[in-house]
Amino acid sequence: MATRQLALDTRPLTPVPAVPAKPTRPPTVPAPPAPAPPSPAAVESLFRPTRTPNWVGPGDRWSRAWGMPGPGPAPVQPVGAVRPVAPVEPPDAAELASIRAVLAAVQPVADRTMAQFHALMFLRHPELRAVFPAAMDEQRQLLFRALQECVRHGDDPAALRAHLVPLGRRHHTYGALPGYYASAEECLVQALARYGGDAWDERAEAAWRRLLALVSRLLVEGLEETRATPAWWQAEVVGHRQAADDVAVLTLRPDQAYPYRAGQYAAVETPWWPRVWRPYSFGSAPRADGLLTLHVKAVPAGWVSNALVHRARPGDVLRLGPAEGGMTVNHSSGENLLCLGGGTGIGPIAALVEEVAAHGPGGRRVEVFYGARRAAGLYRLPELRELAVRHPWLTVRAVLSEGGGADGTPAGELPDVVARYAPWHGYAAYLSGPEAMVRAGAAALRRCGMPADAVRHDLAGD
User: Can you give the pTM of this predicted structure?
Assistant: First the structure.
């Protein structure tokens, strides 16, 4: 029987480590690292990065609707590279007569003429398409009204400047560049030549070129004034409250400091209607936290107003143009204030009251008349009455055009009710609300003896 030999392991034994002595002190346990402070929530813009504001680019559904595959050529002139423009003299009397004759001939076919102008401009200068909305109907109407205004003030350079320089500043928000105006000027001359009929001749063309050169120079002047300011601010919606039927109060947080005064307004663009801007007044005085409020009423066929009232929600991002308007209080004058606010026009009126309260009344009195059709429309009345309780210099009166009188609330149209409390000697009037109410209120106050320069409003902001 075979026997199995056992092999011996001849490798040296590993020494067994000594058992460490029992510790006399507990081990030191390092403290857990301090948690990093939470980073502020980033607001992701709903707008795509663009080469210029409102640029039409890949992924823009408006580009696809217009058959534009890409952003098109680069801008014809970089911002800041403005060529010196020689002074332009306004048209003389004979030239203005030729200009007005052409405008009268064009007026029956104004929409067709403006459509021809835009077609020529977009065909020859496709980079300009990016600053206009997809639907051009309203733009044609606005352009012809602007032409009428320029012709009306063609012999008054000061009035023309007062109208065009602010318009040029506003064009900065839309992404206009100084070189655009010369391109548009040539296309407009050709459109007028096509539809001017017998009124168009060499003298009429020379007269129109003189007027349009002056218009372009003033628009560029306004545009250049905005070179150091942003074209627009992005503002996140952080609050959306339904205040009344078809009325919403939006609270916005701009992405950077936004300078404005109580009583001013700004153009607003939504991501749902690109390149469509509408002006809205601020509903509060500047606040320490930088938040802004807008009071918006949805109007029939109002693209932007319906989007803001019925679609906007916290987290959405809007665009704001720079603050505009001169309906602000001169705190050094000490004059009493008469404020008329109709509907959502109470927003800037309440902002003025807030600013006076923060600045100090300085011995002035403030009379507020707040008008609406029915009591449900007086959504800001409790807040204003609470201010009146705290500040004896403030008086607030509600006015109802329908259903007033039962509880002591004056009944009637707001301008008529305000006229019953006349005279208003020593007061400056501030009016905000529907255009018809503002115009009727201004006329009523002038009939009461209030000087025209004491009646202040910004119809464009309402």
Answer: 0.71
